[in-house]
Amino acid sequence: MVLLRLRKRNQVNEETRQKNNVLVRSVSDYLDDHFMENLTLEDLEETFHVSRFAISHIFKEETGFSPMKYVMMRRIGESQNLLMNSKMSIGDIGEQLGFTDNSHFSNTFKKYIGTTPGAYRKHFREES
Fold first, then answer.
1. Which pick of 66, 71, 114, 123 has the fewest CB atoms within 10 Å?
2. 71-127 CATH
3. Percent of the chain with pLDDT over 90
């Protein structure tokens, strides 16, 4: 009897894990497609019909970071690409990626990468 209960509990846990994995993959795909937009947890809640608290908790549990941190990491990653491979101005890059102003972009970039966007671009242009 105890063994049956344990099997049932494990089956429920596995079903929950699978549902969570599907949700996290769906949210990740959505964030990848929309990271340049001004996203909120409320947007995710409306899109996936799951509470923003559940999305945030499950996403962080599965990935190690919140959905909004994931968005910021995507923006910073894309900004690195654009800084290295385009002639766009730093201000235009920040604006395209959804930063509110140049200062916000520069401060956030420095927080994640350890240097300013201008210094980052200069470093990679000197190496080329």
1. 114
2. 1.10.10.60
3. 82
